Amino acid sequence: MSIIADPVTEETLGAREARQPSSKVAYFGPDEPLRLDGGRTLSPFHLAYETYGELNADKSNAIYVCHALTGDQYAASPNPVTGKAGWWSTLIGPGKPIDTDRFFVVCANVLGSCMGSTGPASTDFETGMPYALALPVLTIPDMVRAQAMLIDRLGIDTLFAVIGGSMGGMQCLQWTVAYPSRVFAALPIATGARHSSQNIAFHEVGRQAVMADPDWHGGDYIQHGTRPHKGLAVARMAAHVTYLSEAALQRKFGRNLQDRDKLGFGFDADFQIESYLRHQGMTFVDRFDANAYLYLTRAMDYFDIAAEHGGRLAEAFRQTKTRFCLVSFSSDWLFPTEESRAVVHALNANAASVSFVEIETDKGHDAFLLDEPEFIGAVAGFVSSAAKARGLVR
Amino acid sequence: MSIIADPVTEETLGAREARQPSSKVAYFGPDEPLRLDGGRTLSPFHLAYETYGELNADKSNAIYVCHALTGDQYAASPNPVTGKAGWWSTLIGPGKPIDTDRFFVVCANVLGSCMGSTGPASTDFETGMPYALALPVLTIPDMVRAQAMLIDRLGIDTLFAVIGGSMGGMQCLQWTVAYPSRVFAALPIATGARHSSQNIAFHEVGRQAVMADPDWHGGDYIQHGTRPHKGLAVARMAAHVTYLSEAALQRKFGRNLQDRDKLGFGFDADFQIESYLRHQGMTFVDRFDANAYLYLTRAMDYFDIAAEHGGRLAEAFRQTKTRFCLVSFSSDWLFPTEESRAVVHALNANAASVSFVEIETDKGHDAFLLDEPEFIGAVAGFVSSAAKARGLVR
């Protein structure tokens, strides 16, 4: 009756990609340890990344793209696991708002994830075994610190822009806080300066679903030759509901039945929404590592910029020289507009350059990944005016 | 790491109560089969119920109380499993808005549940084994049809009132639709005339969590001597988030840490909200049957009054003589005010007697179970004026 057949033992495409990424990979050896917020260091580690376009001569046209919880470095090129187009192909490419004919775009798989960067499925060289839960718990600032090392490695001093949505938006904000003079423009989208109680709650449900799966084996499923796919599928289903909106669900699915003209009086998927969610759960487990899901949700839960600055969010942006454009979506209940507004207020308190757009849409949190003309237009407008200000216009 | 220790084999207090209820029990034998919406009949079956107060001579003072998804018949008396006060003690008792010195209150455990009424954990007399998934899938109208048989058995023709919140509100509405001349007054609270796509989605997540637990054994866990407690705990955690509101979570828990003064950098419960949710999951499994959870969530998903009336909700209430008071809560995102308003419009289209109160509160869906003075006052006022209209005032 469960949507996931058991047992699952064969290596998925996703697991293979984690082990042997198709991307470029930047290795950081023992001489370049990463200092972590938890007090430990990570060394060695590596980041798998993609680039699009060409870095110009004075290295002033680089845009760093931060991906969301289950995203990856394939922002604008086909994903080798799913075969799908890059997740932000609407926004990034030749002639697009983030025009790869003009900008050099960098996107790395975040630390702790599973598309080729160091994460819980990576080998711990001290033991020769997968890290699993022996990997230190990571934070958004840790991820961004690693990204800055990659940007250093690429010889780039100041980024023209940093952009990201959801967890990517958290990284984007963190970039401007941690490196106030290295980010010319920032676009934090559908995000906030901290994770709310309700968001922590949904993440905890997902983690418990994973950890309740006996195939999780306390995190050591790789050694056991199992995968907690059932638990991870449930986690994904729960999370997926929060990415949409009631209005979008009503419009897309309503109470429509799936492949039947009357109720089945059983526990198969009667309704289209059930079938859709099951599909989301089933396909997710092929491309995502369960422990990575635990680590990345934890990083989001821990995120709280104000807490790191004496409880005052404005204090975090005191040194900022960045020009900001914040975007929220009216029906996003995971990161409602008030979360963006709180950041705008903190920036205003520092007389920072900030514009703020709330996009009217019923598509919920997911809207930042969709072809929403008003959103795409807002990004295009901001990027182009920032490029002008930066002297990047041909 | 999971919040539920394994293996769980001993009979819980809840399971014992399902088998041998402390309540009064009404048995309906082979001569009184229950016709089910799915096309089958259920026979024999039984309902465990509680009563409070005395039925008056002309049997005109009976109030039927419908409980919610995980509620039970102990509306106004201590629950034998949890030892806690009745779940609606705020509302029902001597001198309370539903005054048991004046009214005869009946509350039965719904069909399909696990506090002594026939449900999936009950014995199927044809096989001598627990029904498990062999129990026909039940609907809200099925539950109400069984309740009407209980009311017949008690010799009551017309109920003075029917009241219920959430799934109880669905039953309350169904009572007025199925028995338009047997309900003098109705109080459907925090409910709707159909289950929304988003609500079906959350229920499906919970069901998948249960069914993903290997201890579920395709529903036959009783024979296997196991219980899918881990899956059921996850289902409860996911559902519990939807019973609250973001504002309530922020106010009660915020990002406060639990029993620690800094982040733990691990996967234990760092935040109070995590600890709270884990507690909700852990305690629920002691009192609730996993298959009953599947059956009752399914019944709610199937509920759609309009669909049974050619898609026109107003048509369902064409014959109504009942006076209605609908109550919604401003921060309830499971059954938002619009769902109540749709019922009010349908009643207005029939020139029915209807009042409607939206209670301003940040406590979310759960508010109907809490001591919300404005809500309690609204119920008291409506019940007392209905009693006057019914000639029940001493």
TrEMBL record, chains A, B:
GO CC annotations, alphabetized: cytoplasm
Keywords linked to the UniProt accession: Acyltransferase, Amino-acid biosynthesis, Cytoplasm, Methionine biosynthesis, Transferase
Active site annotation, chain numbering: S166, D332, H365
InterPro entries: AB_hydrolase_1, AB_hydrolase_fold, HAT_MetX-like
EC number per UniProt: 2.3.1.31
GO MF annotations in UniProt: homoserine O-acetyltransferase activity
Pfam families: Abhydrolase_1
SUPFAM superfamilies xref list: alpha/beta-Hydrolases
Compartments reported by the entry: Cytoplasm
Binding partners and assembly: Homodimer.
Stated role: Transfers an acetyl group from acetyl-CoA to L-homoserine, forming acetyl-L-homoserine.
Name the record gives this protein: Homoserine O-acetyltransferase
Origin species: Aureimonas pseudogalii
Lineage: Bacteria, Pseudomonadati, Pseudomonadota, Alphaproteobacteria, Hyphomicrobiales
